[in-house]
Amino acid sequence: MAYGEPDGSAKGTWRARYKRPDGNWGSKSGFTSETAAENWGREQEALIRRNMWIDPRDAETPFGEFAEELLTALGPRLEPSTLAKYRCHLGNQLLPQWAAWPLIGIFNSYVEIEKWVSELHDDYAESTVSSIFATFSTFLNAAVKAHMIPANPCSGIRVTAGEFEPSKLVATPVQVLRAAMRLYETAGPPSFVLGVMDAYTGARWGELAGQQRHEYNRELRSIRIEAPLKEIGGRLFKGGRPIGPGGVAEGPAPRRRPSGRPGRGKKGRTKSPAGTRDVLLPPSIAALYEGAMDSHDNPFVFCTPDGNPWRRSNFRLRYWRPAWDGVNPDQPSAEDHVPAILSWFTFNEGRHTHSSWLTEDGVSEVARRARLGQKMKGIARVYDHVTPAMEEHLLEAQESRWVASMAALNTRDRARLMLWFPQLREATEPARSEIAPDGIAISSPSAS
Predict the structure, then answer these.
(1) In the prediction, which pLDDT does 262 show?
(2) Which of 120, 193, 207, 322 has its CB surrounded by the most CB atoms within 10 Å?
(3) Do 191 and 288 contact (CB within 8 A), yes or no?
(4) pLDDT reported for residue 256
């Protein structure tokens, strides 16, 4: 039972003694009376009985020490990209500010946390601040679970400014085709196909850029999305293995789950279990993809001339942005003037575009979500399933959009497209005969 005793100091103060969970005696000095010391000790023992007690010694653990200990424990189970993100945030933003702070000090410093978040907003974009703060909150949540602080001080702190997010851009099939033709001229035929498949599959960047020839099923005309390409610490990884020169994987293959109940390896996987999927391609898009594969013998279908897979930032800055934004679009008299097609259109907005097209075409929600690698919500997740008829409807709608976009090109640009991809000639001829001469939208990859 807790009690109070003189602490032997010249001030005549008292020390509280109480029984810790491990059976040893804990103490705290500085009380003005024996009663006050005894009451405090009884409060500690009551908290211990209710499993709500925080060991003062644990609460004084510096944040930097706790963070490193937690990463050591979690690291083997984390995705490499997640671990790299945590390391980046710790090294650049969290440890410089909080490394020496005791956890209980952070818990009691709400105003300091608010000031720190405001300072982050001065240096970083709102999305970056949200990501940094989420990492900080994750570590403090772990401290709560470890009974080192009573609650997460990040709870209730508003990180974003609450501004409305800008609407996502949705491209038309003709705009997608025009931008892809520009990619052909600057980065080659496979990049044309990559630009088209962005809008006609709804796959993410890493899911498409990471496609290898063995992941294509020629019989079903489908791509297998299972191990997307990831960039971690400046290196590219596929299926948990680093990618070396020429797109060749280095190091041993990750261990697979033994035969029996199917499962997924934890390294190099998709964003969610639903993200592991097969994506059927419309006939014309499949023909383009097979042509891209046959144009070289490198492991990655979409690659640089030396066989290396594309890096997101390089492809975006050198090829994607000029294709959509144009060159000197506001200066028609400039020698290198190229008008914009849809300024600021991003690769991710190709995914939004694909989803919007499917909705316009009346594709069922379960088929849309399955194609995008998303799980259904609610009871529909249990009872709604994709049928062959749904898949056929989806592919027919996508093929119709593609054919119509080719027919909408002017004669010169359509001829160039047929010269680049002769396999498309069969698909475009019937569509041209069905469109009245005055119904053709004249467009060009170099026109506004």
Answers:
(1) 47
(2) 193
(3) no
(4) 57
